[in-house]
Amino acid sequence: MTLRPIAAHWFELLTAHGQLARTMEGLSRTGAVELEARSGREERVVFPDVSEQLKAHQELARRYHSYWPDAIQTTTQRTEPLTEILRSARNRLEAWARVADPVIVSIERISREIIDLDQLNEALAHGAATLPNLRLLVEAGPQLAVRLVRLAMGSQVREIPALVLFKTWDAPTASYLLLVGYLPDIAAVEAQLAAIMARAVPLPPWLPASAEVAAAAIAQRRAALVRDTQAARDQLAALSDRFEIASALGDIVLIEWLNQHAKDLRGSERLAWITGWTSDVTGDSLRHALDREGIRYILRLTDAPTGTNAPSVLSNPTWAHGFEFFARMLGTPASDEIDPSVILAVIVPLIFGFMFGDVGQGLVVMVAGFMLGRRYPLLKVLIPSGAAAIGFGLLFGSVFCREDLIPALWLHPLQEPVTILIAAGAAGVIVLSIGLLLDAVQAHWRGEARRWWSSRAGLSVVYLGVLLVPFRIGGVIIAAIGMIWYTLGPLAIATERRFASVVRAAGEFVEESLRLFVNTVSFTRIGAFALAHAGLSVAVIEVATAAGPIGYWIVFVLGNVLVIALEGLVVSIQTTRLMLFEFFVRFLVGSGRMFSPLPPPNIRKRVLSETS
């Protein structure tokens, strides 16, 4: 754990051209590599341009991808040129398509018939009581036409010719319209149906006369179609195994991945030269990953080429990862800046808990962090924030808005609002003092310690003096010393235009000191929101009590849900604002570049023997 980001190291790796794909994949699985081609090299581009071939594959995929198995990459050694691997994979897919196309056409025809039967079954189930003999409808013709039409709910046909008999009825998912009339008249209605995206439901020739008997016949026919579909899909699966489609797709996915990430890599006819940045300081994890893949390579960590900008790698314990989000909203800390994530992991929950102090509601927030954090890692910050809310809830004696269940270990906010505001201001003083200290640390890292001590140190002295004034009148003297320090300190390091440096320092002092004290006052909003939370809680209980024995619990539950949702959102926004605009302005610039590891290909692996 360190407050200072680590500058990623430059690495250079030489490997055989035929092992480029496996080398790249091995590096990506470490999560410790960001590729960057070294400019100015005279070697040729290693990876061939396969964009046209991949475009042709994408055309094939648009038609057949839903019938392909999942892509699988085998771990057998592949030494052919990448263009040959791609050509072989495409040939297998095209050969499979020629044989599989009739089967797919059959599956699609069966699927359409199943949809037709389901819609027919729905129409008959909700309109059977008033429908005529179904056999008469099926056998109508040649001049008489019958149409069963499925309409979206709320759709209407504006005009139906006088000689056309019709009936409409509603089902749970759609409306249905039955039309009987001469062909020319039905054609006039069909033009309107096309405009409202209506769908004709075929009446099969085997349909029985009775709706009840028809339902059984439809179920029997549907079961047969499902069996036919499964048989056809089994046939497709056998064809996929025969043509090794899964591994062909795996090869193509890997080449698409390489085409995205390896276009700028260079090398010779036999060797590939991979360069970039790594967060692995020793290179051990890279070597282990490559050795595990059986790669032959030469790897070295060396000085970065001139003109390159090393990305910053944040080194924080797992429990602080979620709080990296706050600093990254402003930018990525450079290697000579403070990464405040560990500090925020303490400050942010405490500020949140102070404004949201309630044992029950804090428990809900913490549980939400546990549940949602698995899917959305950022929301894991709710766990310590909820725990802090529980702690302050004990101090304030509040459980689900009620203040009569447990005694307050400290005070009830609404009974002592001045104390709450003073405590919030004191918290702001502590946080901003930490910011001033971090600014000093950064100055030492950047080699600007002398400049900081000659000028900006005076701001800390002024802050200390002003804070002492309410307790000791001598604080005025300390503040005056700090002001003189800040203003005249630049004379110690200025070599020319010394008067101008003093004038500039005086202007900066006015700006910095005013902003510092405004930031301090701004932290009292923590107390204000703590009072607002307590006031809203009291209002919920008062309304619930007035609602009567039954209404009490309804209002109690809904009121707590409202408080958690509304106050939780407001408090989260205010906490973020205080960090970004009051705390970070003291030290964080965010001039670094984020480390972006090479993502691994989205492909499963399957181990095959060399003879398989």
Describe this structure in words.
The structure is a single chain. The chain is an alpha+beta fold and 612 residues long. The chain has three domains: 6-79 and 245-313, no CATH class; 109-229, Alpha-Beta Plaits (2-Layer Sandwich), CATH 3.30.70; 318-586, no CATH class. 56% of the residues lie in helices and 10% in strands. The chain has helices spanning 20-30, 51-64, 82-127, 134-138, 183-195, 211-242, 245-261, 284-292, 324-330, 341-355, 359-373, 382-396, 417-445, 449-468, 475-488, 498-522, 525-546, 548-583; strands spanning 6-7, 9-16, 33-35, 44-45, 72-74, 144-151, 165-170, 175-182, 199-200, 266-267, 271-278, 297-302, 312-313, 604-606. Strands 2, 3, 4, 10, 11 and 12 form a six-stranded antiparallel sheet that branches. It has a four-stranded antiparallel sheet with strand order 7-8-6-9, sandwiched between helices. It has a two-stranded antiparallel ribbon with strand order 1-13. Helix 2 runs parallel beside helix 3 (82-127). The longest helix has 46 residues, at 82-127. Residues 607-612 have low confidence and may be disordered.
